[in-house]
DNA sequence: CGTTGACTTGAACAAGATCAACCATTGTGG
DNA sequence: CCACAATGGTTGATCTTGTTCAAGTCAACG
């Protein structure tokens, strides 16, 4: 056990409403504590796991912000997602007992380590946990479907609008502002996620800014006209 | 129950090696039969399920070929996958109890209908089934990760090469030829999956053909130089 | 045998990539 | 504390890839 690992409990975690315990009553919550073995701190820039490593656990983010990515053999990186508090990482490792993507902390972070064997054992006992695990995996499949739609069908402006709206919506669900936030990732990482180059990301930010839809200063973003953003992302069919 | 629904068994299905029963011993196999409620035939062009419909079951393909797709509000379609015998559809529906994509038969097909409540009940009893369900979902997440890489980072030729190699590899696992096959989908559907226009798909086919890498005649494809395809898909880093 | 849907091919065009220069912010060592 | 390097971000000019539009081919089928 690493020195920064400590024993912890879901039952008094303030992420109850977003994380694994969703839909558990108090009695179940006590048992759920068994799935979390330890916590682990990851410094900004450090990896939680890398492609190729043996899979043992899922990870629930307590604090901090991550990106996950896959790479081609010739070194091109595709960011596959950005994860924040209450979200689960590591699902990619189940199928082959090895991770197939990298998880890197974009700010100092702490995760709950949940050995997958604990999850499997306990979810045989608790249908509510079983159902929750299934939903988490299904949610990830649905999310990736929508990223495929974004990458396959949308233009640069639509992609960035969709990205900003998704981000602010998730932040808002965690008690942050509906309109302003600080990006945790670089233009290059945004571009990698959205299938565009960092220059195009920067230009699109500038364009939105000129149009008065957002205010940008480096990593700080304020959404001035959410409806306009929504309209860019989700244009009406031309009748 | 629809008239074309009949009672069936996994234990004597010839897809045992590819479908749900992977890794089950004979005793377990008998119980596994309980998860399949019925079979259902779907004619070419018919939908198995549509986005928005209530989710009740997963579907294992016995025969035939499907595409799954999602759409934007203004009617742009993104094909999210092509599925063949032994593959499982419907995982998208678990998270919200409603499907979020469409599944359409590209040729006359038959599926095993597996009510998800049966799967959940039985997988609490059989760790091997529980594990298998988790792996199926994880495999889908990993597949979608690699499609994101393809859509976000690859050029047209790389995309089509990757697509053809993936298709032939899956067909080969089902006993078909390593080198020739008949496409079940149109150029437009391939293009939608790969994030390119049907004209670009057609041109890229022609280019591969001129280079002697493949032979194409309409939907018939023969791979003449698999190594060349592999190299297009997976170029070496320039040192 | 004509109609239809799928496919191919060419020419013009545009979105985004690439290349390049420059600016802003942060952190570090003298 | 300041100089300056390093990293990240912006902006302009040019180029490329793939899109769009258009015309024509092919195969299947009623």
UniProtKB/TrEMBL annotation, chains A, B:
<dbReference type="GO" id="GO:0003700">
    <property type="term" value="F:DNA-binding transcription factor activity"/>
</dbReference>
<dbReference type="Pfam" id="PF13545">
    <property type="entry name" value="HTH_Crp_2"/>
</dbReference>
<dbReference type="InterPro" id="IPR018490">
    <property type="entry name" value="cNMP-bd_dom_sf"/>
</dbReference>
<dbReference type="Pfam" id="PF00027">
    <property type="entry name" value="cNMP_binding"/>
</dbReference>
<dbReference type="InterPro" id="IPR014710">
    <property type="entry name" value="RmlC-like_jellyroll"/>
</dbReference>
<keyword id="KW-0804">Transcription</keyword>
<keyword id="KW-0805">Transcription regulation</keyword>
<dbReference type="InterPro" id="IPR000595">
    <property type="entry name" value="cNMP-bd_dom"/>
</dbReference>
<feature type="domain" description="Cyclic nucleotide-binding">
    <location>
        <begin position="20"/>
        <end position="97"/>
    </location>
</feature>
<dbReference type="InterPro" id="IPR012318">
    <property type="entry name" value="HTH_CRP"/>
</dbReference>
<keyword id="KW-0238">DNA-binding</keyword>
<feature type="domain" description="HTH crp-type">
    <location>
        <begin position="154"/>
        <end position="227"/>
    </location>
</feature>
<dbReference type="InterPro" id="IPR036390">
    <property type="entry name" value="WH_DNA-bd_sf"/>
</dbReference>
<dbReference type="GO" id="GO:0005829">
    <property type="term" value="C:cytosol"/>
</dbReference>
<protein>
    <submittedName>
        <fullName>Transcriptional regulator</fullName>
    </submittedName>
</protein>
<dbReference type="InterPro" id="IPR036388">
    <property type="entry name" value="WH-like_DNA-bd_sf"/>
</dbReference>
<dbReference type="GO" id="GO:0003677">
    <property type="term" value="F:DNA binding"/>
</dbReference>
<dbReference type="InterPro" id="IPR050397">
    <property type="entry name" value="Env_Response_Regulators"/>
</dbReference>
